[in-house]
Design brief:
Elements lengths: L3 H6 L3 E9 L6 E12 L2 E10 L4 H10 L2 H15 L8 E7 L6 E5 L2 H24 L28
Parallel strand pairs: 3-4
Antiparallel strand pairs: 1-2, 2-3, 4-5
Helix pairs in contact: 3-4
Length: 162
């Protein structure tokens, strides 16, 4: 209640499950939204996260490391399909720090980030579909079971790093 924007965002339909089928692969996609709310007549998807640091730059970097951009695409796609929306609904993270004073940051996710999540989804759902079809689930050495090679990181004077 001490953060009026977060308070408004976190009121609506909580823990909403949505299922849809990917047309390209036929795979069933499942998600459970933290919150689906309406603001100014618009449906808004809200996800609550805790973090050590809720700063926008820090959280954005973590968002990609933890695959949240993929989550954003899946959730907004699910809502578009479930409610037959013509436009992708806004997606907002409500991020709260884990330590006092428990600072809160509300972070809207722009379309270019959602599109990067869509690219990630297309790649991963394709891999999953192939693995399910063939019964072969490959790991770090890839589909062709290639040998990986260590590298000298930049901080040690190397040219490349992962």
């Amino acid at each position: 209640e001490r953060h009026p924007i977060a308070n408004k965002l976190l009121h609506g339909e909580a823990e909403k499950p949505i299922f849809w089928t990917d047309e390209d692969t036929g795979e069933l996609i499942k998600c459970r939204l933290d919150m689906l709310t309406e603001i100014g007549g618009k449906t808004v998807v809200v996800d609550y996260k805790t973090a050590l640091n809720a700063d926008t730059r820090t959280f954005t970097n973590k968002m990609y490391q933890l695959g949240y951009h993929l989550q954003v695409y899946i959730y907004t796609e699910a809502v578009m399909r479930e409610y037959k929306l013509e436009e992708r609904p806004p997606f907002i993270f409500v991020v709260q720090e884990k330590t006092p004073p428990y600072a809160v940051n509300c972070i809207a996710v722009p379309e270019n980030v959602i599109l990067s999540g869509m690219d990630c989804f297309r790649e991963l759902i394709g891999i999953l579909h192939e693995c399910l079809e063939t019964g072969v689930f490959w790991g770090y050495n890839g589909k062709d079971n290639d040998l990986n090679e260590a590298f000298l990181p930049k901080w040690m004077g190397g040219e490349t790093s992962e």
